[in-house]
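dude i think i finally got it to work??
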Amino acid sequence: MALTADLVARTIRAIENTGPPPDLVRNPETEWNAIIREMLATRPDGRDVWIFAYGSLLWNPAVEHVEERAGVVPGWHRSFCIRMRDWRGTVDQPGLMMGLDRGGQCRGMALRLAEDTVEAQLGKLVRREMPVRPSSKPFTHGYRWLQVQTSQGLVRAIAFVVNRKGGNYMGGLTLDETAGILARACGHAGSCAEYLHNTISQLEALGIRDRNLWRLQSLVADKLTSSHP
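look at this
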C-alpha cells in the first residue's frame, strides 16, 4: 500500500474543536430516540438486527455484536462524497466523509446485534453516525434497511447511505479531485488521509479489495509525497 503510516502522520495537525458549522446543529436526545424508535418500527418482522459495516465501522465498530458475516450489498458503492466541515475537516478546509452512494456494489461485513441489547447498541450507533442534523436542508447522511447477500443467505441490515439531495452531497468529483481533498483535510478528530488508511488497511485484512479506494490511496500518497518531500 502506497499510503503509509508515515505519510499519514504528516497530515495530522492540532485543530481546535469549535463545534459544527452554522448550518448544522447537534442532535438532541429526543431526535436520537426518535431515530431509534423508527429503526425498530421498520425492522423486518421477527428478524435479527444487523448492521452493515463498510467504512469506519469495520475498524471501530462502536457497537457490541455477537456475529459477523462477510456480505455484499448490490446497488450501492463506497464513495467519499459528503462534505465534512467538522470532525475530519474544517470550515476553511472541508474534508470528505465516506458513505454508500447509488450504483455498483459494496463488499463489507454484516454485524448481528444481541436481541437483549438492540436498543442500547442502536443508541450508540446513531449518536456516532448522526451527531448533527441540518438546520434547514435535507439530511445528506441517513440510514436504510438494505439486503446483504452472505454465504449463509440474505439478511436485512441497517446501513448508512447518502442522500443526493442533501446540502453537503459532493458527488461527481474525479478521483484526483477527491485525493486532493483527502490529502489536505484535517479536523479535531484526525485527518481524512488517516481515515482512508485505516479503512483500506482493515479491508485488506478482511480480504476485501475495493478498486476505487485502492487507486485513491495511491493518488493520496503521491500528493503527500510531492507536498512533503
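The beta strands are 24-26, 50-53, 67-84, 95-112, 132-134, 141-150, 153-162, 186-187, 190-191.
im so relieved honestly
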